[in-house]
């Protein structure tokens, strides 16, 4: 008994010293994380609710801390920040904020203010299964609040520190549950143990399997929207972003690889000077605890939507840290044994070192921030473009969604005539304006950690142009009420819903699920409604009142309700005899079957793409989709569905399972494949289509230096580019588009040959397809020029819709979502015409 007690005590002492020795003594009135949780940090993975409770405890017990809640996740978990500083600063936060924000306003003249604290955001755990960081957040919060050392006191006098312990609580808890439930006692370090091999979809992503570390620019999920909104209330000078990488490594901190852009949006002073300045601090701190690390050779921060790059285009310094993961509590690697506490200690060391470096370079950081916003106004004049004008009079809900993103980033937007808008370039958020509208075709580097294209206007298929002269109307400050469709008037005969509107699909599903029969017009038509002529594009929805089982009044109430809910243009008409085009009783106005959709998910499938489909249907169409686990596909019955989605993945299906899919399609159903799933249906000869092939002459092999291999091979990868493609908008898959060419996003090497059927290549890359991003000459010449982006292929009485490119990328491609939704709602109406 005594022996056991001694062991426990020494373990406790060891653990306390392991992390905090340098910061003794601590205020005894404040419980350490270990005292609060009942276990040592690193002994288990800590649940997010306990992390929040601990921070609440600190805020309750100490006048050096207050807690801010900035949102809730999809699963309802709290998103919080603990504000830490001296009691004096904490009681003067509003005044500090005002003085600090003056440095971000180029119109105000400010001079450095040595008494003003520097603003630091220690942010952790954007990837849920990179767990050392949130544990380090607990240690950082405790140390900053409870340490009575002179060093920490000095930091609090000179800084306001916002600790965001978990950016992605839903993913974190998914992993936490996993790691704790497989933990052995004694610990099992064998890398083959289940504890170190998490299963699909893993904890990296959020509820809808989105990578939140790409979402800062795109602003789709509540986690990043809450954070970005908070961000613009404080504009921190320094922001951390803690990650883990593969276990066979050490530790990484910035500087990263040189910026891949020829003319980077973020200032060189940030990318080079500030990162080198901070890098020296991290090197010394990690040297002092004997930890190995590397810098410069990996990771690029060119994409502005990372947690470590967004601050760089907001006048701050974003810092990326990557710890080799123990993935579990202890694991054997080629670098020795990595324990969870060891990974936590490195992250904790970098946390406190960040505070130190920021405090010691307060004036440099604040001068930098001031110059950053001033230079935004000056630089914008250089290129001669004074403003970008955009709009789309056919689809106002898509325009609204685009404006929402501009406003999220505090970009100034003004009205410009009827249904058009302008964004002036001369504004503090000039770099964000660049990120939304500028496109590039020349690069310094050719190997990217992620996308090399992110001109957000193209994501939304938003037509825009740069103006050398412009005039502006009222400033737009919110999207609510920006466009209101004319209220639909009651009709005893029929209603027409404009299919060009982004929300028309949600409206269709809502009416269908309320038992109404709705048809789609396969040719354009014009009618008279409310005394005006209205023209409708392909796909316009026709609701004939006499076909419904409900009364005229009940139908009208539903139509009114759906218009209020989704703000879509709906018109009452009193005759079936149209002004132009087909009449309302035409055989080309075809009843739409309500989709009963399923999607294969699970180990082997790409969780991001599956999540994007799920998110699109849940949040924008409000339509359920059944998620069929691949592992029990053999037992699944497909008869209840009319549409099956297969996203990119490695489908190791038995012949019997393949036949099950084929036979089901042949009965008249629709299979939608995306990316490598399209390649799969071709490879398995489920469809009679082909891939674009290019064979190199094998006698012509040139010897090359081994060291260049990864660079050379990386150049041929398609990290993420925007291409223009020609659309057949008379094809049901192209309904709802007015354009003959639209931007598409390509981030794979799936190259489909155009269909041999003249009418089945819906989307083919344009002659000069490049819009934005890096693609090699070899890929352009050998593949892009002769490939299609979307084809449809008959199979028995059914069909397969093959997308080479992901139409739902990152929940953000409003411009191509419609192609996918058309496949889902109109797929069964498409007959592939045959020439013979
Ligand atoms: Zn990560």
Question: What this model shows, in words?
Answer:
33% of the residues lie in helices and 19% in strands. The protein has a nine-stranded mixed sheet with strand order 24-23-25-26-31-30-29-27-28, sandwiched between helices. A hairpin with a 2-residue loop joins β8 (330-333) and β9 (336-339). It is of the alpha+beta class. The protein has 24 helices and 31 strands. It is globular, with a radius of gyration of 29 Å. α17 runs antiparallel to α18 (552-566). The model is unreliable at 1-14 (pLDDT under 50). The chain binds zinc ion.
Main traits of this protein?
836 residues; nine-stranded mixed β-sheet; alpha+beta; binds zinc ion; single chain; seven-stranded mixed β-sheet; 31 strands; disordered N terminus
In summary, what is this structure?
With 836 residues, this protein is α+β, with helices and mostly antiparallel strands.
Low-confidence stretches: 1-14
* Terminal CA distance: 90 Å
- Number-wise, the strands total 31
Q: Major β-sheet, in short?
A: 9 strands, mixed
Number of H- or I-type helical stretches: 24
List ligands, each type once. zinc ion
Q: Determine Rg (CA atoms, Å).
A: 29 Å
pLDDT averaged residue by residue: 94
Question: Strand portion, in percent?
Answer: 15-25%
- The structural class is alpha+beta
Bin the helical content: 25-40%
Backbone shape = globular
Strand order of the largest sheet: 24-23-25-26-31-30-29-27-28
């Amino acid at each position: 008994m005594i022996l056991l007690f001694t062991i426990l005590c020494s373990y406790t002492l060891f653990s306390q010293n392991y992390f905090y020795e340098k910061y003794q003594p601590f205020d005894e009135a404040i419980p350490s994380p270990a005292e609060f949780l009942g276990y040592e940090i690193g002994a288990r993975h800590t649940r997010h609710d306990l992390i929040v409770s601990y921070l609440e405890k600190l805020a309750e017990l100490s006048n050096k801390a207050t807690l801010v809640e900035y949102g809730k996740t999809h699963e309802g978990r709290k998103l919080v920040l603990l504000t830490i500083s001296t009691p004096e600063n904490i009681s003067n936060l509003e005044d500090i904020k005002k003085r600090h924000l003056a440095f971000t306003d180029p119109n105000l003249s400010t001079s450095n203010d040595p008494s003003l604290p520097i603003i630091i955001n220690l942010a952790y755990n954007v990837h849920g299964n990179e767990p050392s960081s949130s544990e380090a957040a607990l240690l950082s919060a405790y140390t900053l609040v409870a340490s009575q050392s002179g060093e920490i006191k000095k930091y609090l006098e000179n800084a306001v520190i916002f600790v965001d312990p978990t950016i992605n609580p839903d993913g974190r808890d998914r992993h936490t549950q996993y790691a704790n439930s497989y933990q052995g006692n004694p610990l099992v370090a064998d890398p083959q143990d289940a504890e170190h091999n998490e299963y699909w979809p893993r904890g990296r992503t959020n509820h809808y399997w989105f990578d939140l570390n790409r979402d800062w620019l795109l602003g789709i999920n509540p986690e990043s929207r809450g954070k970005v909104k908070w961000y613009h209330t404080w504009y921190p000078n320094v922001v951390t972003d803690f990650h883990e990488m593969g276990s066979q490594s050490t530790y990484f901190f910035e500087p990263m690889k040189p910026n891949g852009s020829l003319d980077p949006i973020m200032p060189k002073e940030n990318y080079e000077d500030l990162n080198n300045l901070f890098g020296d601090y991290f090197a010394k701190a990690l040297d002092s605890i004997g930890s190995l690390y590397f810098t410069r050779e990996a990771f690029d921060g060119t994409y502005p939507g990372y947690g470590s790059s967004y601050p760089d285009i907001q006048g701050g310094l974003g810092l990326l840290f990557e710890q080799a993961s123990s993935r579990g509590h202890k694991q054997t690697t080629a670098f020795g044994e990595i324990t969870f506490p060891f990974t936590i200690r490195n992250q904790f060391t970098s946390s406190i070192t960040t505070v130190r470096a920021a405090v010691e370079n307060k004036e440099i950081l604040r001068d930098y921030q001031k110059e950053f916003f001033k230079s935004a106004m000056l630089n914008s004049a250089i290129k001669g473009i004074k403003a970008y004008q955009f709009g789309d009079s056919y689809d106002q809900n898509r325009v609204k969604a685009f404006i929402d993103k501009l406003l999220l980033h505090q970009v100034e937007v003004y009205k410009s005539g009827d249904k058009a808008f302008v964004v002036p370039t001369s504004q503090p958020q000039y770099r964000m304006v660049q990120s939304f509208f500028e496109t590039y075709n020349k690069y310094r580097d050719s190997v990217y950690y992620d996308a090399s294209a992110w001109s957000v206007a193209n994501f939304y298929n938003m037509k825009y142009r740069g103006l050398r002269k412009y005039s502006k109307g009222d400033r737009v400050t919110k999207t609510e009420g920006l466009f209101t469709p004319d209220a639909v008037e009651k009709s005893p005969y029929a209603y027409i819903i404009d299919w060009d509107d982004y929300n028309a699909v949600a409206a269709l599903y809502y009416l269908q699920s309320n038992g109404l029969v709705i048809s789609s017009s396969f040719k354009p038509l014009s009618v008279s409604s409310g005394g005006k002529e209205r023209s409708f594009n392909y796909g316009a929805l026709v609701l004939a009142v006499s076909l419904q089982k409900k009364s005229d009044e009940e139908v009208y109430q539903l139509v009114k309700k759906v218009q209020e809910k989704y703000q879509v243009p709906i018109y009452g008409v009193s005759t079936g005899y149209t002004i132009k085009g087909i009449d309302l009783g035409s055989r080309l106005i075809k009843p739409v079957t309500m989709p009963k959709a399923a999607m294969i998910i699970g180990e082997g499938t790409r969780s991001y793409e599956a999540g994007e489909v799920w998110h699109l249907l849940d949040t924008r169409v409000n339509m359920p989709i059944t998620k069929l686990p691949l592992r029990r596909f053999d037992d699944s019955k497909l008869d209840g569905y009319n549409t099956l989605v297969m996203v990119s993945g490695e489908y190791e299906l038995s012949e019997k399972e393949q036949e099950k899919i084929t036979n089901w399609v042949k009965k008249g159903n629709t299979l939608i494949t995306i990316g490598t799933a399209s390649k799969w249906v071709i490879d398995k000869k489920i469809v009679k289509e082909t891939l674009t092939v290019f064979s190199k002459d094998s006698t012509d092999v040139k010897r090359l230096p081994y060291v260049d291999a990864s660079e050379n091979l990386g150049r041929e990868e398609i990290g993420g580019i925007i291409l223009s493609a020609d659309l057949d908008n008379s094809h049901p898959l192209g309904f709802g588009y007015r354009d003959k060419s639209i931007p598409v996003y390509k981030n794979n090497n799936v190259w489909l040959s155009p269909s041999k059927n003249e009418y089945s290549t819906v989307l083919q890359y344009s002659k000069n397809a490049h819009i934005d991003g890096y693609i090699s000459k070899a890929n352009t010449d050998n593949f892009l020029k002769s490939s299609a982006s979307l084809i449809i292929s008959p199979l028995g009485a059914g069909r397969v819709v093959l997308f080479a490119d992901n139409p739902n990328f990152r929940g953000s491609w409003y411009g191509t979502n419609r192609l996918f939704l058309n496949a889902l709602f109109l797929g069964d109406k498409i007959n592939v015409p045959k020439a013979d």
